[in-house]
Design a protein that fits this description.
Elements (H helix, E strand, L loop, with lengths): L1 E2 L8 E2 L12 E11 L1 H7 L16 E9 L11 E5 L8 E5 L3 E3 L13 H14 L7 E4 L5 H12 L3 E6 L5 H6 L4 E4 L5 H8 L5 E6 L3 H10 E9 L12 H7 L2 E4 L7 H14 L1 H5 L7 E6 L3 H9 L6 E5 L4
Parallel strand pairs: 8-9, 8-11, 9-10, 11-12, 12-13, 14-15
Antiparallel strand pairs: 1-2, 3-4, 3-6, 3-15, 4-5, 5-7
Helix pairs in contact: 2-3, 2-8, 5-6
This protein binds NADP nicotinamide-adenine-dinucleotide phosphate (NAP).
Length: 325
């Protein structure tokens, strides 16, 4: 699947390209399904080019079977059912990826569903837990609770016994967030999240905030943070430049953190994937975390998948099927 020219979903087209070859330390995967992420829309529009050396094809995660091993790969065999975190190339029938970014299909999850996991789980785990160190009984505020990222963050927050508050933009998304375990769900189009968080935490505020909105929420997030709170910005859907009240930051002894996963060095991604395998995969096996799949479309319908995300219709993930499992 290639982007014929920067533009709308109609620019996505099926195309014959040369098969990737696994280099040293890489595995080749026959892709079964690929996850669709908001970043894919930006790449299609020409606003999010792949990092140097990455595939030009869109797609940050996939599931499938290993069909080739590059020199020096240990721990995987041909035929293994896996999912993988990619720097690109997921919207395809085959992809080569460093072995450190590959995870076994988790117990109790189908091979198709497994495509919904790598990008969201690695993002949420690395930011909320490895970086912001969310602890039991703390309050986590998740913006965009019904997104792929949000549905994962709600479940992982509850898995460690945090209080979870989520924001959504439509009443139709409230029930699913509650079902996933959120303690409070706020429709941000109707209610001011600063006030609601203050009320439900009896003035304490949120210890950790996972933000996907950016500039327009910076001041409100700062006012919502508890003392010693951690604001983690992973998306800038509303803009990148905002005003930060340093007095408030200092008075709250708070931290503002921000990370992007895609451009991180291979070794850092491998460390995140290893931590996910050790800490999150058992939570899937014991039922604390389930992939939330909105719909599965054939790879040829990637344009329709992008339209669904553009209109924010989805709850959880949209997946593309490259071949029958
Ligand atoms: N930094 C990283 O490494 C990294 C990695 C992965 C994803 N991300 C970011 O994480 C975000 C979610 O990604 P995704 O793939 O899961 O996308 P997605 O499913 O398309 O979700 C986007 C979400 O943003 C929410 N949103 C938009 N405006 C909002 C607002 N004003 N207040 C609260 N929520 C708002 C939407 O909620 P409603 O539809 O309910 O309005 C929607 O649920 C994206 O911004 C993406 O770029 C970052």
């Amino acid at each position: 699947m290639v982007v014929r020219d920067a533009g709308g979903p109609e620019m996505l087209a099926v195309w014959d390209v040369i098969d990737p070859q696994p280099g040293p330390g890489e595995v080749l995967i026959d892709v079964v399904a690929a996850g669709v992420n908001r970043a894919d829309l930006l790449q299609r529009q020409g606003n999010y080019p792949p990092p140097p050396g990455a595939s030009e094809l869109i797609g940050l995660e996939c599931s499938g079977r290993i069909s080739g091993l590059g020199p020096g790969v240990e721990g995987f065999e041909i035929g293994d059912e896996v999912c993988a975190l990619l720097a690109g190339g997921g919207y395809a029938e085959r992809v080569a990826v460093p072995a450190g970014q590959v995870l076994p299909r988790p117990e109790g999850v189908t091979l198709v569903e497994a495509a919904a996991l790598p990008e969201t789980v690695c993002t949420v785990w690395s930011n909320i837990f490895m970086l912001a160190s969310l602890r039991p009984q703390e309050t986590l505020l998740v913006h965009g609770g019904a997104s792929g990222i949000g549905t994962t963050a709600i479940q992982l927050g509850k898995a460690v016994d945090a209080r979870v508050i989520a924001t959504v933009g439509a009443d139709s998304k409230v029930a699913k967030c509650l079902e996933l375990g959120a303690d409070t769900v706020i429709n941000y189009r109707k209610d001011d999240f600063v006030e609601v968080v203050k009320q439900v935490t009896e003035g304490h505020g949120a210890d950790v905030i996972l933000d996907v909105v950016g500039a327009p929420y910076l001041d409100r997030n700062m006012r919502t943070l508890a003392t010693a709170g951690r604001l983690v910005v992973i998306g800038m859907q509303g803009g990148r430049t905002g005003e930060l009240d340093l007095g408030l930051l200092l008075a709250k002894r708070a931290a503002v953190l921000a990370t992007g996963l895609r451009a991180r060095p291979v070794q850092e991604k491998a460390a995140i994937v290893a931590s996910v395998r050790d800490n999150v995969w058992p939570l899937i096996a014991d039922g604390h975390l389930r992939p939330v799949v909105h719909t599965v479309l054939p790879l040829e319908e990637a344009g329709e998948a992008h339209r669904i995300l553009e209109d924010s219709e989805q709850i959880g993930k949209v997946l593309l099927l490259a071949r029958e499992p």
